[in-house]
Amino acid sequence: MMAKARFLSVEGGEGAGKSTQIGALASAIRDAGYEVVVTREPGGTEGAEAIRQLLLDGAATRWGARSEALLFAAARSDHVERLIKPALAEGKWVISDRFLDSSRAYQGDGSGLNDADILKLHEIGSQGLLPDRTLMLELPEDEANRRAARRDGNAADRIGGRDRIFHHRVHAAFHRFAQQEPHRVKIIDASGTFDEVARRMAAAISDYL
Ligand code: T5A
Q: Is the N end or the C end of the chain the one with fewer CB atoms within 10 Å?
């Protein structure tokens, strides 16, 4: 009998290799006989992609921390209701490039909002839906910066372009989530070659296949 469809999120700082690895992870799951929907946050639905533009474009001061958190929660609400839950209900796996933990890390620890408030917004917007498993890609800061710079030059978005202290807080938050929820959140060493990282990602969900 086929195992049940799972909801996975992939998290980590900018340039850690999330988008690159998700394709390989989806292929490994498809090879095991499942349908897989790959999506991203902010975004994934028409409405949430429109909110993505509002969030990532424009001046650094465009939004305050609270309005930013509300916009992420609104985008996620639409994403969960119109894409993630229906796909899971049809027996498809869903892999989301970022999800709630990004709001907890960037708008919570990074921007100084309370974790309990972020979780409350998630309860209101998305009925508290959590991934079955979260793969947290971890890469030394210098290597992540090198990878992101090779790809983008100096063109960071509104949030990626924040200072080192902000990104340190984000990184520490992700680490804390893995310690607090070891069954859900698995740290993946993102250093090394594409194939090495892909093998670590596949191993972290092999118990589901
Ligand atoms: N955000 C998001 C919040 O603040 N709150 C939230 O709730 C949410 C959901 C989203 C921004 O929004 C913030 C976080 C972000 O700042 P985004 O454009 O979606 O921004 O970008 P990111 O999610 O940050 O992802 P990036 O595209 O910057 O990084 P990835 O996906 O981790 O990295 P990737 O795969 O593009 O790889 C980077 C480069 O490295 C190379 C790739 O080819 C690429 O060039 N690479 C490797 N090079 C060598 N060896 C390997 N093993 C490599 N793997 C990849």
A: N
Q: How many angstroms does the Cα of residue 19 sit away from the middle of ligand 1? A: 6
pLDDT in tens, 67-124: 999 999 999 999 999 999 999 999 999 999 999 999 999 999 999 999 999 999 999 9
CA of 151 to the centre of ligand 1 (A): 10
Query: 184 pLDDT exceeds 70?
Result: yes
Q: Residues 6 or more apart from 3 whose CB is under 8 A from it?
A: 208, 209
Distance 3 CA to ligand 1 centre (A): 30
Spatial neighbors of 171 by CB under 8 A, at least 6 apart, are 13, 141
Please give the domain boundaries of the chain with CATH numbers for all domains. 7-208 (3.40.50.300)
List residues near ligand 1 (CB under 6 A): 12, 14-20, 41-42, 72, 98, 102-103, 106-107, 147-148, 150-151, 157, 159-160, 193-194, 197
CA atoms within 13 A of residue 153's CA, in its CB half-sphere: 1
Q: Which helix (H) or strand (E) holds 75?
A: helix 65-79
